[in-house]
Amino acid sequence: MRALLLVDVQNDFLPGGSLAVPEGDQIIPVISDCIDRFDVVVATKDWHPAEHESFASQHFGQAIGDQIDLHGLPQILWPDHCVQHSAGSEFAENLDAAAIDHVIYKGDDPQVDSYSGFFDNDRRHATGLHAWLLAKGVTAVYVAGLATDYCVKFTALDAIDLGYQVYLITDACRGVNLQPGDVTAALKQMEASGVVLVNSTDI
Q: Which of 39, 61, 73, 108 is the most buried (most CB within 10 A)?
């Protein structure tokens, strides 16, 4: 069975949001064209408490984009985003949320970030996504969403490690590109790990 896995298609990652991904809104029509081609659709949401320690606002003297050691893990500091129950945490308005069969919430532990839809960044806690997919009999996942070089990448890599056939819908993703070349490097890393890069028209 095939699943479409939508990663963090939330207002704060769209133009005008607090952590806007360039052209992030352009993936939504592509997702809309794909969504009815899949047996099941599951989506992740960043779901941060207001005091999340990945936020630069929680660290005096630090700026957005700085990298710190956060409880033993390297952590890029981000603007406050996807705070629980805020407008920024909601799915994009023109995303067909009614077609989503299940939502996975991640990043709710204030002490550790969660880029992957499967685990937090120290891999101590699973989100429940793997168990849900297994229960549905899913063997192949098609990944789309935001952002290519962070949450999409880590979700796809974990899916490979967990034994799924993994496809990245390249025209249904956009990246942050915090450093020039980050998106290109992420695509190469995913492909080298066994992720198949496809276009939505190939599905």
A: 108
Tens digits of residue pLDDT in 71-130: 999 999 999 999 999 999 999 999 999 999 999 999 999 999 999 999 999 998 999 999
Q: What region, left, alpha or beta, does residue 120 occupy, with left being phi > 0 and alpha being psi -120 to 50 degrees?
A: beta
Q: Beta-carbon neighbour count of residue 16 at 10 Å?
A: 10
Q: Quick check: is 46 catalytic?
A: no
The values of phi and psi at residue 40, to 5°, are -140, 150
Q: Is 182 annotated as catalytic?
A: no
Instruction: Given the residues 34, 82, 151, 173, select the one marked as catalytic.
Output: 151
Q: What is the pTM of this model?
A: 0.96
Known catalytic membership, residue 151: yes
Q: Which of 34, 106, 149, 158 is catalytic?
A: 106
